[in-house]
Design brief:
This protein is mostly helical. It has helices at residues 2-9, 38-46, 58-67, 69-78, 86-105, 108-116, 120-136, 140-157, 159-162, 165-181, 184-190, 192-206, 211-228, 230-237, 241-254, 259-273, 278-289, 296-317. α5 (86-105) runs antiparallel to α6 (108-116), α6 (108-116) packs antiparallel against α7 and α10 runs parallel beside α13. The longest helix is centred in the last third of the chain and has 22 residues, at 296-317.
Length: 319
């Protein structure tokens, strides 16, 4: 807990990453209004994919400042405007909450800019915004660089961000998505095949029922099988279809209403079984598109699932 508290207030001297040319969120944002007390009320549901995440209120900030004066000193040096005084905690907390509002609303570029201005605590939503933008909105030519920046930025922050489950997940997710697209020799050279399961194991050791990490683990195993086959995957990398199925089953038991879990499972079924599980994959995509999104991330996931479902149904019709 002490390490997690330290994350919010510590600022390392890392270079800011620009988001001047990011595309705007393309869908209606009116349903994602979490102004005022709406954010606190919706917080458990908004963060359910992370298996629970503390709400960044003034009380929490005050406790951190009292427990970690060294972190306060670094925060002062960052120019964040917070010096550790209890009367300043509310202002800092409100700024951090506003960054999360922008993430949930889909204002990713502004969330990144405002988050980085708050130090390491703000880096968490800032980098999460960058992951979402990279995966769903960025041009294909920019995607790899954006994900690599998330990994680099988090690594430079060192062990502080390693205590934060969202920062941990964001880095592992970025590596997993890169591992799917990069050639096997490049993935091996970067060490992703060892780092991804290690990082996911660390997340699940603290939060064994975190839906996002469980689904990502299942998707990672399916991705390895897709690239090297079942035999080599099992013998060399310790992955298997059975384990893939178990991770997704655990994710759905923890939370069955996350669009990304269902469409990731649909993809995984295709990677591992090919056409043999086509109908099951269609069923998963239909579950994803039936979910009503409560934030911008879920809206993008549902839109992606609709695209995948349309393609899959067209393929079915052509058979």
């Amino acid at each position: 807990m002490r390490r997690l508290l330290l994350v919010l207030l510590t600022c390392l001297c890392l270079p800011a990453l620009g988001a001047d040319n990011w595309k705007p969120f393309p869908y209606d944002q009116s349903a994602f209004d979490y102004s005022g007390d709406k954010l606190r009320a919706a917080w458990p549901r908004l963060t359910r994919g992370f298996g629970g995440y503390p709400f960044p209120d003034a009380t929490w900030v005050t406790k951190m400042a009292a427990a970690h004066p060294d972190a306060v000193a670094k925060t002062v040096a960052s120019g964040s405007g917070f010096s550790g005084k209890p009367e300043e905690a509310r202002t800092y907390a409100e700024k951090l909450q506003d960054v999360w509002r922008k993430v949930f609303r889909g204002d990713f570029a502004q969330a990144k800019q405002d988050g980085l201005a708050l130090g390491v605590g703000g880096q968490v939503p800032a980098m999460f915004a960058q992951v979402l933008y990279a995966m769903f909105l960025a041009p294909a030519s920019d995607k790899q660089q954006l994900l690599e920046e998330v990994i680099s930025y988090t690594d430079q922050a060192g062990p502080l961000l390693n205590a934060d489950p969202i920062a941990q997940f964001g880095r592992a997710y970025a590596k997993a998505r890169l591992a799917e697209e990069l050639p096997v020799p490049v993935v091996l050279k970067r060490g992703y095949t060892g780092e991804i399961p290690k990082e996911l194991d660390a997340i699940l050791a603290e939060r064994p029922n975190q839906p996002f990490a469980l689904a990502l683990y299942g998707g990672y195993q399916a991705g390895v099988i897709r690239k090297v086959g079942k035999l080599v995957g099992r013998m060399t990398y310790g992955v298997s279809a059975d384990q893939m199925e178990q991770y997704f089953a655990r994710s759905f038991r923890a939370s069955d209403d996350l669009p990304i879990g269902h469409y990731e499972y649909a993809n995984a079924l295709g990677y591992v079984y090919g056409d043999d599980q086509h109908e099951k994959a269609l069923e998963q995509l239909r579950k994803a598109v039936a979910i009503k999104p409560i934030n911008a991330m879920e809206a993008l996931e549902v839109a992606r699932a609709k695209q995948l479902l349309k393609t899959a149904e067209e393929q079915t019709a052509q058979r």
